[in-house]
Amino acid sequence: xxxxxxxxxxxxxxxxxxxxxxxxxxxxxxxxxxxxxxxxxxxxxxxxxxxxxxxxxxxxxxxxxxxxxxxxxxxxxxxxxxxxxxxxxxxxxxxxxxxxxxxxxxxxxxxxxxxxxxxxxxxxxxxxxxxxxxxxxxxxxxxxxxxxxxxxxxxxxxxxxxxxxxxxxxxxxxxxxxxxxxxxxxxxxxxxxxx
Length: 195
Description:
The protein is built from ten helices and no strands. By secondary structure, it is mainly α. It has two domains: 57 residues, Homeodomain-like (Arc Repressor Mutant, subunit A); 136 residues. It is elongated, with a radius of gyration of 19 Å.
């Protein structure tokens, strides 16, 4: 019985942390990272600043936690891919899984796109850049022609750019994600054929 109570508290704590991240990202997107204060985040959440402070000491801590939520599954995907054969099927599965990760993190990617200077200043950008390089390295064959390597990089940026470029396009979210994944798959397939 005591365990159930502890789990309930942990779950509520986790939900609060997630709510803080969601609201902070919403505010960062609406008015910019620099102009958003912890007070505004706590007011939108309708919690005290002390309750917010229990989870995050600064807004930078919130932003870093958002990136950790993104980079952990990317790191896991890279580790998984390194254990697989360098086949076209593996590369396609990497893109499928990356597309799912990206889709869940689309609001964060939009924030990154619109706040590149902030991301650079907080060194989060360098961390993400290293993940992208890791992803390219599991997609490309090291001895492949330069054009094939560019196609592998372009496959990833297609997934990134698709959400931003197609934001206002006709169609539902699933159609847009499918279209970007299809183009990314074509790029990696062509790169694999060239290798």
